User: Which sequence fits this backbone?
């Protein structure tokens, strides 16, 4: 019998673990809230949460921990040797050596750690929306933008394992400040935070008069969620904001297409789930933004197949590929 | 005896051919001017020039054409099957099927065609400034910006072979128009054309008063070459323009570092030869522009080892690797 593969995705709000069969079928799942308290040492609480969900799955499936292979996807710059060197959205774990925290002589656990979007692109490439496609980028639109790149069928990891930080590609050198220290990063425009910012701008510029009126004239009370909901019900002024976000989404995708010549982009994350109109808007703008588009084949923007499970599925697949 | 490898680099002004030994040693060379006249069919004149230099090298070295392996680097979007689908700087050859034009039953020539900067990065990776480095980007600064990417030791080709069009990464969404149809492409700033544009802007803004005075007060008469020459002799106002170009160069490199996690960037092309100060300026700005630079290893910006020969050397190496 081959080892049971478990994939764990550590997000900003929850830790999701899936037990994945050889076929890719999800046979069991477990989730807990992501702890954010600072422990005695960086990542201690996070590692405990990961061990908790993994142990729960092992126990329920009558498997020893030493018979598992475990992949863990983490939100931030993951080094090839298992250290989460920089994690702005999970500060309590930034700098933690997860390879060391998770594996001990006592538990004999076999673990691989990767960036969460790198895991997601592996899932989509092996079994999901980009099956059979050799050159693909996964774009996860959450608060920020995460990325995973497969080129020539291989995961692009880079020198230290940090490849795929596509949200911090600068697309507007004179644009707004980003928490990363830069200015005009892509994720200031085409992410959840981007919708919120463009919503504020549109409201202040008088372009969201209906939504502002619904909020009793309070410009600051109009939220990104109001825009995505109103766009879904066809309100023109809200559709214009979604169109603008889609233009920025297409702009960054066009950049990546020029650099990598990927023909498929898998888009996932909470923002796409909140606004199914966004992908259509990006598709409408893409061909006018890609260099030499007349000479290229069509570029496919597709929704994630695994949705919020893509990171955990991919983590399990990577564990099986690298550890068995 | 192994086949003799010939590498040909088709540039905007000249066609350079090198005969390269197994060791990488250049044992012979030949060059002609690039023809720009439109022949009866696209690329006809270019292909003739390539065959001319290749035949000259074969004859002089007492080798039959059929005993050669030939690599050809071309400036533009080269498809994997040898078609130059889009070549803004060589319009007379845009759309030409070079694999078909160069190989015939008569000559029995074995040929591989690639983008010129892709050839250059292969030369620098195998034998030049990035020897032993698995993740490297070649940045060629000419009139525009060309690029070649090696990730995990492998040339990144992309779906159709078009990867590496880094000059058309948009870094300033509201920036000046680019001949490609876009706006604010990186090559509007950090290329020869970029220096010319930033020179005009600086002169018009009164920031090049000494150089304008030297031109009898004619703002429009100050040229990019004046700035690079004056900077080399230490003129502060010219150094400021080079520093600005260096900032833009560093910005694009920071984007590529975030996306690909390359630790080494090899910079070549006419602009670097014209201004050796440019690389230093880019180095000064880089760490403040790269996301999470405190958590990364140092990013190395190095000058091309093979200089203007890098494309031809790399083309010969690719021919040997793929055809023998």
Assistant:
């Amino acid at each position: 019998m081959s080892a049971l593969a478990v994939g764990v995705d550590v997000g900003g709000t929850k830790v999701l673990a899936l037990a994945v069969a050889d076929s890719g079928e999800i046979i069991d799942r477990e989730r807990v809230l992501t702890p954010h308290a600072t422990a005695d040492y960086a990542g201690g609480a996070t590692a405990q949460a990961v061990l908790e969900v993994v142990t729960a799955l092992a126990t329920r499936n009558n498997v020893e921990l030493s018979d598992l292979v475990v992949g863990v996807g983490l939100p931030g710059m993951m080094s090839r040797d298992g250290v989460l060197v920089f994690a702005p959205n999970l500060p309590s774990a930034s700098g933690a050596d997860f390879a060391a925290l998770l594996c001990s002589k006592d538990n004999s656990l076999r673990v691989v750690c990767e960036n969460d979007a790198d895991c997601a692109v592996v899932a989509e490439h092996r079994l999901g929306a980009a099956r059979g496609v050799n050159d693909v980028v996964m774009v996860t639109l959450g608060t920020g933008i995460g990325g995973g790149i497969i080129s020539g069928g291989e995961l692009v990891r880079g020198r230290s394992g940090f490849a795929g930080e596509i949200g911090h590609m600068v697309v507007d050198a004179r644009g707004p400040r980003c928490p990363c220290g830069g200015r005009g990063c892509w994720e200031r425009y085409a992410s959840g935070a981007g919708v919120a910012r463009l919503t504020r701008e549109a409201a202040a510029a008088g372009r969201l008069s209906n939504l502002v009126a619904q909020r009793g004239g309070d410009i600051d009370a109009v939220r990104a969620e109001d825009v995505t909901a109103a766009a879904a019900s066809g309100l023109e002024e809200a559709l214009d904001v979604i169109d603008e976000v889609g233009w920025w989404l297409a702009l960054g995708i066009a950049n990546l297409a020029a650099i990598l010549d990927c023909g498929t982009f898998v888009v996932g994350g909470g923002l796409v789930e909140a606004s199914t109109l966004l992908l259509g808007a990006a598709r409408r703008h893409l061909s006018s933004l890609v260099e030499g588009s007349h000479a290229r084949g069509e570029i496919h923007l597709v929704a994630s197949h695994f949705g919020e499970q893509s990171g955990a599925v991919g983590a399990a697949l990577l564990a099986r590929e690298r550890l068995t």
Remarks:
- The mean pLDDT of chain A is 94.
- Chain A touches chain B through 52 residues (CB under 8 Å).
- Residues 133-304 of chain A form a domain with the Nucleotidyltransferase; domain 5 fold (CATH 3.30.420.40).
